[in-house]
Amino acid sequence: MSDKYLKLCCLGRSVLAVCLFVNAGIASAQGLMDIYEKARTQDAQFQASRNALQAALEKLPQARAGLLPTVSLSANKNRQFGTASFSGADAVDRDAQSWSWSVQLTQPLIRWANWVGYQQANAATRQAMAQFSVAEQDLVLRVAQAYMDVLVATQGREVMLSQSAALEEQLTLAQRTYSVGTGTITDVHEATAKLAQSQAQAVAATQDLEFKRAELERMVGESVGLLDGTFQRKPYLIFQSSMSLADWLALADTKSMQIQMQQAALEVANKEVAKSDAAHLPTLDMVLSKGTNYSSGSLSSPADIATHVNSNQVGLQMTIPLYAGGATQSRVREALALAAKAQDELTLARRTVANQVRQAHSGILSGQAQIAALQTAVEAARNAVESNKIGLRIGTRITPDVLSAEQQLYASMRDLSKAHAEMVMHHLKLKAASGTLTQADLMDLDRLIASDQKLPATLPTNSDEERKQ
Hints:
The chain is of the alpha+beta class. Helices cover 66% and strands 13% of the residues. It has a 4-stranded antiparallel sheet with strand order 1-2-3-4, with no helix packed on it.
């Protein structure tokens, strides 16, 4: 029996060594806003969205250029060599030079397609900005989710380590009572099995923490150490609101960035229909040009007569489309189909946002009840552990009863930590769906969960009197 106990103790020390190695080299804990600021500059997904916005913003000046004048300058210089014979005379060498330059300004006067294109670019800019706002809210949600996951995994690991320590003491107590004849070998076997199971759970919790931390590191682009945070002060309380579900739905319909993005996309599609229709319309441009032509003569002329001409020209240029092989009508039909698609996507976006609001709101209501129940469960489990320990001392309880009570307590504590994190995420998702989630919400949450305290200091352990038995 002592060999098994030594193996379990060695395993326990190995688990603790792994956990200490995980936290090695950590200078100080990082807060939620520290992680968020790093993610804003390092997260590749968010940076891609930022660059997409910058590219989309250039569509407006490009479309505006279609309404502004264009100026072009052209110049050339030529020299001709050859021989020429005139009236049967002997051929003579000829050398003629010429050069010219011209400047032309074209100002669109009537180009309806260009004007519609400018309006379309405005709508596309609004769409891009709404899309970037969605990306910003998504970053807030992803950082919060990853941060909460690491926080929950960290506390889960600490709970498992505390449980292993408590079960190790119970095993020691069971072996002592067995050695003096007041306990049974069954108690020792039961404590050994519970301790081995708890240590396996501690290893799994450590691995889960590493997985969660790796996801957070993927966003910030660097190693992440300890996080500063605890759920003791009920962080979801900062999101308490008197708004009803109907109020949230109405707010989401007017403020949701996803809906605004699809509304802008529908406007872009409708402008594309108008722009395609405008291809049937005539265009009118004003053309201004100025140029100079010089020639020293010609190879085909017997006399070298130099010419130098300066010219100025003002005119109107009209183009009337007549037939393009049916391509214009085809583009109109394509644009109409895409506009119908954009309308369907707007309807889908409204329904999706409404569903997100309902799910988050329902999660909040059920989460409140769950947290209240788990808080009661933790307190009841803590009392049950103490009662079973007293019962074990006076002989009304056996070691398996204490072990089960302790495992139930730690399981309830772990579940309560998860419930707090899920509650926070439901609130953040509700605000995101309603278009009101901002960086300020993370700042409020960071201030509330930041604490020097970790797990409650009143974790149950065996008393000195129990160790002496």
